[in-house]
Structure formats: C-alpha cells, structure tokens
Amino acid sequence: MTRRLIFALTGVVTAFWLLATGLGVLVMQDEFNEIFDSALKETAGRLTPLVVDHLYRLDDLGTPRQLDPVPLASADDYIFFQVRDASGKVLLHSHDITAKAFDAPLQRGFHDTREYRVYTAAAVSGTIFIQVADPRWHRREATVEGGMALLLPLLILLPASIFAIRFIVRRMVSPVDTLRQAIASKDSGNMAPIAETMLPRELQPIAHSVNRLLGRLRSALEAEREFTSNSAHELRTPIAGALAQTQRLIEDLPEGEPMQRARKVEASLGKLSRLTEKLLQLSRAEAGIGSTETTTDLLPALRAVIEDARRISTGPSRLALSIVAGATLERAVDADAFAIAIRNLVENALVHSPPGSPVNIRVASDGTIHITNQGPVASREELAAITRRFARGRTNAPGSGLGLPIVVKLVQQMNGTIEFLSPIPGKTEGFEVRVSL
C-alpha cells in the first residue's frame, strides 16, 4: 500500500508539473511574440526618418545599397531590415542580410513568411516601404529555452519529491503498520489487548473491534484450557485408584478368562491414564508456559529427565546421553516446560523404535539437542502429519498422538526450532529430532 501510494502521489505531482510547464510555455510564447512584435514596430519607427534622410543624399539608387552598421543593427542583433520602393525593388538593406527582397507584401502591418516575421512601415506618401524582420527560429529558440528553464528543475525536484513523499507517506501510515504488527503478533499465547490510545482516531474503531474479538477468543480459550486442565486433574486420581485396584485384582485372580479380562481392563486404564497425562500437558502448553524472563541452565533438567526415563523404561541401558565438552544450555526458558518437551521426545523414541535398540541423546557445541532412534524410514507425508493432534504414523505402538504436537507448541513458545529427519543423516534408516533453543 505504501509503495502504491508513493508512486501515485509522485505520478500526480509529475503530471501537474508537466501540465503547468506546458501552460507556462504557451503563455511565454504569447508574451515573447508581443515583445518581439513591439521591437519590430519600434525599430521600424526609428529607422524610417534615418532611411529617408539617407536616401535623399544618394545620387544613384539603381542598385541595392548596404547600410553601414549602426547601433540599431549591430552584428549581434537578430533584427534585419530592407527599404523598398513602390515597385518592390530593394533600395537599402542591413549589413547582415542579402539584397533579395522579403517574401512579404508592401502593406502596413505584420506578415509571416517561411523564415521571418516581417513588419512593414510606409513613408513619403507610400512610395518608400521599410520592412523590419526577425527570424522565426529565434522566437522558437526563446520559447524552447524558456520551457527548458521550467522543465529542468523537474529533474532535480522529482527525485527530491519522491524522497519527501516517501518519508511523509511512511510516517503517516506507520500507525497502520503498527496496528498490523500488533494484530499479527496475536495468537493463543498472546491475547493482550491492543493499545487504542496510541493510534489515530480513524484506526481506533478497528483496534476496538479487534480487542473485543480478542476478548471473546481469550474467554473461549481460557474456558477450554480450564476444562481440559480440570478434567485431567479430576480424572487422574480415580483412574490411578481404579488401576491400582485392577492390579490387585489381577494378583488375586487365578489364571484363566477372568485374569485375561482384568489385564484388558488394566491396559485400558493405563491408556486412559497416559491420555489424561497428555491432556494435562497440552493444557499447560496452551497456557504459554514455555518462555520466561530469567535465564536457566537446562542441562540439569535434561539429565534428570533422562535418569527418570531410565528408571521407568523397560530397558534402562537403551538411553545414552552425551554432551559435547563446552556445550551450554543457558536459555530464557521455563525448566518445567523444557522437561515436558524432552520427556515426550524420549518417550516417543523409546516407544517407536525396535525393542532393545538404543536411543541416543546428544547436546552439540551450539546447544542443539539431537535425539535419534532406529526404525523404518518415515515419508515426507508422515513427517508432516505427526505434528497434528491425534495423528499417528504407521505404528502399532501405544500412544495418543499428542506428544509431538505438545513438543512443537512448547518449542515455539521457547522461540526455538524443531526438525524431524528420516532417515538419520548419513544412514539409511532411523529417525532424528533436532531441537535448537
């Protein structure tokens, strides 16, 4: 919009300047013609008595004579004259013109020829005619030079006007850009109202409408998060109790069909417990817990998550943590949110890799965290789909399809980036996740 406005205003200014220049040239041409015509009449009036007196002193008028230069007809002037008798014969002429008669009738007044603008004056009862002329190209030259004098400043003023218009337009539309950036920054983690008082009066209704919409969205999201969080909290205790009772029931039951049913109930309760835990994590991620103003060393949290995963996993030796010497993870990130993200990535790697295969966690020198595991190669479509909620790839492993979406949400809040690669770079299979904070 700013670029189009600058071009439009510059084009309008240029068009008006050219129009004014054209009108000025027309006016100048009119005025120049009046001045030149007045000069021809004045010259003819002054030459008449001098020429008549000079003719009476001449004895022979048979051939045209050239009048000696006089102040009125110097070599630097553009005015020429001829003296002719009633038959049209040239009796006298100025020093800088030939004896060939002007192609103009012997009548008082102005007449235009192909080359000259001629003024004719009569003397001695209409027997002597004095014709004063100036070249038409001289008048055109004066008009062109005057027009160029008006047009040339445009070459300087046009670039200057572009910069001036650009500066003024950008300054005037800067509130629009401020409002645009403020609206663009709003997401589920930033629903703060836009400051209306800092905007021009014309934009305040827009900001007010956006704030009302943000208020309704904020209320809806808060209600959704509160419901998810409360539901998860309320479900955790009874599910844990039901799971414990089911496990005790399994211990008391003999082998047989009742035992198998009890184990199916245990598996369903375990799945429901994991889903509840993911929903609680999702509600916390939606609440925007990822970033903080204080810098925290995340390496102790990383080690604690790995140790915790080793205790609860079926194969503690599968997890291998390596930290490059000198690597640091001091970031303005909430340690709890970081732990949730790493725990989900490690659980995902353990569940979706072959039993007994290693899962490597490496912290590079720049702080990038690499988590790799073995497994079949995932297609591009599968890599794009796994970050959607409740979406799962080609696997029979247990899961809810919420782990990776939670991780992506938290990493975005931490102002970091996450990459999913398959196969592992330099290998023909496997899966790698790179997290850079």
TrEMBL record:
Annotated transmembrane regions: 6-28, 148-169
Q: Cellular location of this protein? A: Membrane
**Where is it chiefly localized?**
membrane
Cited Gene3D superfamilies = 1.10.287.130, Histidine kinase-like ATPase, C-terminal domain (3.30.565.10), Sensor protein qsec (1.20.5.1040)
Going by the record, the broad EC class of this enzyme is transferase
Classify the protein's membrane topology as the record does. Answer: Multi-pass membrane protein
List the keywords (alphabetical): ATP-binding, Kinase, Membrane, Nucleotide-binding, Phosphoprotein, Transferase, Transmembrane, Transmembrane helix, Two-component regulatory system
| Pfam (any one) | HisKA
Q: Which PANTHER family match?
A: SENSOR HISTIDINE KINASE YKOH, SENSOR PROTEIN QSEC
Q: What is the recorded name of this protein? A: histidine kinase
